[in-house]
Specification:
Blueprint (H helix, E strand, L loop, with lengths): L1 H16 L31 H20 L3 H16 L9 H24 L9 E2 L17 H13 L10 H11 L3 H11 L3 H11 L8 H6 L5 E2 L12 H6 L14 H19 L2 H10 L1 H11 L4 H4 L7 H18 L17 E6 L4 H8 L3 H7 L13 E6 L4 H9 L7 E7 L6 H8 L3 H7 L13 E7 L12 E6 L2 E7 L6 H8 L3 H8 L11 E5 L5
Parallel strand pairs: 1-2
Antiparallel strand pairs: 3-4, 5-6, 7-8, 8-9
Helix pairs in contact: 2-3, 2-4, 3-4, 6-15, 8-11, 11-12, 12-13, 12-15, 16-17, 16-18, 19-20
């Protein structure tokens, strides 16, 4: 007995010290087993989200800083890089909830700052513009009171008689909007519907190619009444009313020379892709339309706060602004009437888009000269090219100019043989504090009227600092002129130059912009190692700045 107890104790001690086995009744150890292979190393996948988020937030912060300092171009570029960084995340910005949250926050921030930046510049929209229909939406008296049985029956008959690829709601709000179109908005709706006939075939075609309901084409009726020049209080522009940031996000060029938000064809493609992304996010076309109007972040926050996943239920809460509450019912109502206008006493007067051919124009040409070469009124060229923001083609690229059929060959030959006195060079000028149109004209050796015409503005218009202007300079004339009374002309080694006395508030950037040169050239010419300058000092600026 004691021997067995002793053996058991020994076995226990051995087990505690060595990986050996013992029989329950003896002291014999089990044969040793071959050592197990070491476990395979665990390969940890790198998490890309934190890096993408940090990079995007750095761009966003840089944009906010630039915006606070009034650097509009730098701010917009930084905002674009922030959005592009998040959108390029593997699988898309919404593939990871952490990235999605930053993406929504960035979109909201950029949209707010984009409006502020646009509002700060008096000449943000130099081309003639018309009020956007969307600005009146919030004030419309859309009612949720029970509609009459007759209104419902008429609408139901109209819907049942037509084919729709977007489910149409016939609730009281939609019926109220149908009454508005038949009543106080009757003339407006008739004009908008007729104007839309020239754009609707193209919009439907693009929407079908992008795989979204073609009936969403009537979103443009509510947004802009199909006006390419529509410009809203929120600085949204064109048939589909893009703000600059969203337009750029979907491939539209918005810069000093052109604004493709006003190109109905390019804007239609961008709108289709934006709506497709919104539907992928919400899984519901009504919420997608609400997101198009209010921004996806606003709608998502409302859905989360009020725990609603249906637009019509969300509409009953305080999550949405009056404009967005009216917006979706107005689109449904527009679809009902536009698909069966005769039932409501409307006549969709045919309105076809003018035909055109394209001519490649390299560099800046005054549209009045181009019109003379093409034998066409300048108004015709502007109607065919609504994306042009200046009375000229872009100076920094080749541009596909639309002209009436049959005039392309004549235009091409005329421009090739254009006499020197008809050629105009353009350069960019950013208005500084205290400058007027007259003082800028004197500094550049041109007339105030010429600058006003080139920028589609009135000569008496007061200019704010930061306003961007195009300066027409006759070909052959030096791009560098005496920029102010503080500048005097001299020569050094046969090189024409001006001596510019630095004024309070000047920076190297503003001086370079004023004289059509670069910061680096100013530094090289004057032996500067940094960018700090002092009022009263004199800079040399040479006339061969274009070289």
């Amino acid at each position: 007995m004691e021997g067995r107890l002793w053996a058991a104790r020994l076995c226990t001690l051995l087990l505690a010290s060595f990986p050996l086995g013992c029989a329950s009744g003896g002291t014999k150890a089990r044969a040793s087993q071959p050592a197990a292979p070491p476990p395979a190393p665990v390969v940890q996948k790198l998490d890309p989200a934190p890096g993408v988020i940090a990079q995007a937030e750095a761009h966003l912060k840089a944009g906010l800083t630039a915006a606070d300092e009034g650097e509009m171009d730098a701010a917009r570029n930084a905002f674009d890089r922030a959005i592009e960084t998040l959108a390029s995340f593997p699988g898309g910005a919404y593939a990871d909830p952490r990235v999605a949250e930053v993406y929504r926050r960035a979109l909201d921030t950029v949209q707010v700052r984009e409006v502020e930046l646009a509002a700060a510049a008096t000449e943000d929209e130099p081309a003639p513009a018309e009020p956007a229909a969307i600005d009146a939406v919030a004030a419309l008296p859309v009612s949720d009171a029970p509609a009459s049985a007759e209104s419902f029956a008429q609408a139901m008959a109209a819907v049942e008689a037509e084919t729709h690829d977007l489910p149409v709601e016939l609730n009281d709000a939609v019926l109220s909007c149908i009454d508005l179109y038949q009543g106080r908005l009757r003339d407006w709706f008739q004009e908008a519907l007729s104007r839309g006939q020239q754009y609707l075939p193209g919009i439907r075609r693009v929407f079908a190619e992008e795989g979204i309901p073609q009936d969403l084409a009537y979103l443009a009726l509510v947004e802009s009444a199909f006006k390419t020049t529509a410009y809203s209080r929120a600085k949204a522009k064109g048939v589909f009313q893009f703000i600059s940031a969203t337009g750029k996000r979907y491939g539209l060029t918005v810069d000093w020379w052109v604004d493709e938000r006003s190109d109905p064809d390019k804007a239609t493609r961008a709108a289709a892709r934006y709506l497709k992304d919104l539907y992928a996010l919400f899984g519901d076309w009504n919420l997608a339309m609400a997101g198009y109007n209010a921004g996806e972040g606003k709608v998502l926050r409302g859905m989360s706060r009020y725990r609603k996943s249906d637009y019509w239920e969300l509409r009953k809460t305080r999550a949405l602004r009056p404009e967005t509450k009216n917006y979706v019912p107005l689109i449904h109502a527009a679809i009902v009437i536009a698909k069966a206008p005769e039932r409501y006493g409307f006549v969709a007067a045919p309105d076809t888009r003018p035909e055109w051919e394209s001519v490649t124009v390299a560099g800046a040409y005054d549209l009045r000269v181009v019109a003379e070469c093409a034998g066409q009124p300048v108004e015709t060229l502007r109607e065919l090219n609504p994306e042009l923001r200046r009375l000229a083609t872009p100076a920094d690229r080749s541009y596909e100019l639309r002209v009436p059929p049959g005039s392309g060959g004549m235009l091409h030959g005329c421009l090739a043989e254009l006499p020197a006195d008809k050629k105009i060079a353009y350069r960019k000028h950013v208005v500084r504090r205290g400058q007027t149109l007259a003082s800028i004209a004197r500094a550049n050796g041109v007339s105030a009227q010429a600058i006003a015409e080139a920028n589609l503005m009135a000569t008496q218009r007061r200019l704010r600092p930061g306003t961007e202007l195009v300066i027409p300079v006759p070909a052959g004339k030096s791009r560098v002129v005496a920029a102010s009374r503080a500048a005097t002309r001299g020569t050094t080694k046969d090189r024409d130059h001006v001596r510019y006395r630095i004024q309070p508030g000047d920076t190297l950037s503003s001086i370079a912009e004023e004289h059509g040169t670069t910061i680096q050239k100013l530094k090289d010419w004057n032996g500067l190692t940094g960018t700090r300058i002092s009022a009263g000092s004199v800079l040399r600026i040479y006339s061969d700045t274009a070289k």
